[in-house]
UniProtKB/TrEMBL annotation:
The lineage of its organism: Bacteria, Pseudomonadati, Pseudomonadota, Betaproteobacteria, Burkholderiales. HAMAP family: FtsB (MF_00599). It is found in: Cell inner membrane. Residues 95-120 have a biased composition (Low complexity). One of its GO terms (cellular component) is cell septum. GO terms for biological process: FtsZ-dependent cytokinesis. This is Cell division protein FtsB.
């Protein structure tokens, strides 16, 4: 009787091996499900990126607004007869090549001022 019990227990373990550790076992399935969820998240992010790129391509093909915006911000281009004004905060450094305004000339005092010539 002991031999039969030992044989049945061994058979039970042999049957359980493929279920837990085999090619289609529970552990392998759980690992594959984890890989699947990671791949699905990556695909969703790439689909979002592709949709943004597709809309940008459509804008570049159809309208001039996107081209103009890119030229302004990426290439710092201006339209003809357009003036560029940049407002800096107190804590921002001045860009290189910035033009500093000349100091204001104070008017002469009346005592040192030359007399005005009468109009003729």
């Amino acid at each position: 009787m002991r031999l039969i019990t030992l044989a049945l227990a061994t058979l039970l373990l042999l049957i359980q091996y493929p279920l837990w550790l085999g090619k289609g076992g529970w552990l392998r399935v759980r690992e594959l499900e984890g890989q699947l969820s990671v791949a699905q998240e990556k695909n969703a992010a790439l689909k979002s990126r592709n949709a943004k790129l597709e809309s940008e391509v459509r804008d570049l093909k159809d309208g001039t607004g996107a081209v103009e915006e890119r030229a302004r911000y990426e290439l710092s281009m201006l339209k003809q007869n357009e003036i560029f004004v940049q407002i800096l905060g107190k804590d921002q450094p001045k860009p290189q090549g910035a033009v500093t305004p000349a100091p204001a000339v104070q008017p002469a005092s009346p005592a040192t001022a030359a007399p005005a010539k009468p109009k003729s």
